Amino acid sequence: MPQTIAGVGRTIAFGEFLAQAVAAFRADKVRATMTALGMVIGTSSLILVVTIALSGKQYVLAQIENIGTNLVWAEYRGVVNAGASAAARDYITFEDMVAVQQQVPEVKAATPVLNIHERISVGGGKEKEVLILGVDPSYQQVRRMIVVAGRFFDDDDSEQFHKVCLITQKYAESHYGGADLAMGETIKVSGVPFIIIGAFRESMETFGRSEIQDDTILIPYTVARRLTGTKAINQIYFTLYNAESVPSGTKEILQVIKSRHRPESQYNVDNLTDVLQVAENTANAFTMILLLFAVITLIVGGVGIMNIMLATVTTRIREIGIRKAVGATRIEIELQFLIEAVLISLVGGIIGTLLGMAIPFSLRLFTDNYLPVPWLAAVIAILVSCSVGILFGTLPARLAARLDPIESLRHE
Questions:
Q1: Pick from 344, 252, 276: nearest CA to 31
Q2: Domains of the chain by residue range
Q3: Residues 354-380: tens digit of each pLDDT
Q4: 170 within 8 A of 216, measured Cβ to Cβ
Q5: Is 234 helix (H, G, I), strand (E, B) or coil?
Q6: Predicted TM-score (pTM) of this structure
Q7: Which residues pair with 271 in a beta bridge?
């Protein structure tokens, strides 16, 4: 049964309007196609913009998460009295780490980091200053380091004070010709020979902004502590069980460390929560800017529809007069032209949506990269297309409905 609207003394059938609209498009296919093209471009742009924005957002957040969203680090900042001597420095210690693990239940694992700057021979009698980090076996888990060759040192290496080490992948490639070729080689640190048992890299490139540099060597913390003869450490890295407990866990870690040191000592305990928030806000702002351009494209398409419909009204003035003469009401004339505008906008929107979604799907056939297909954006794009048709089709429809029937019949 066709849908109808009650009019004044008559019934308006939508089926008739749709049939007339299709007939009008068939009569001038080129004009209809060019009019719909603007909506095709606008809606496909909207889909692609959302897809690209979501992909970029996911990529940025994934890169940050590779560092560790559950990561918390602690380090000594100094004392309130800027003129305090070196003897007054109150560095964090390995015992602080143990206390935090015992008192903060959110902590899953932790590792100390003891920095040693050493000049070592890199072949050919040349010496180079490198950064040596004394860390626990849990460092690999906490900092998400990837072992590209060999193995990471274990609890037995740490407890037995084995002289073993890992070097960065870049160090292995530049000085030994490759990670595998470096295995079993010896490096002397403070005159003590260490056997290379592995090569590693960060889970994401930080370009030297973390504690890891291009020429970094990892040795067991127990051995590093014996070499330096100090209980002080430079940083402690913690990983928590879940990201939701990071803010509260960060505060608890700071409280435990401060309770074990002098009141005037200052410590920094931080996490990546703020970085994640900034990255997400930046990605959202970028998405909104791109969406604005897509909306402008849709508006341009809507203006094109309005211009074409105004031209259509001009060329069909005599038709409008005849229809009014045989009893068509103003609302029927207005609905006829409005439905034509919405239909052409909707058809263009559907084609543009399918095209915009087909591109991300087709990329999956040629690459392993996954592009999220925004189904909600597809629905919104179609709804926006209909809205554009209604918005920009209203003026031509009202102009057509207000034409004087007598003057229209006289129009040539």
A1: 344
A2: 4-63+278-410, 70-271
A3: 888 887 777 777 766 666 666 777 888
A4: no
A5: coil
A6: 0.66
A7: 72
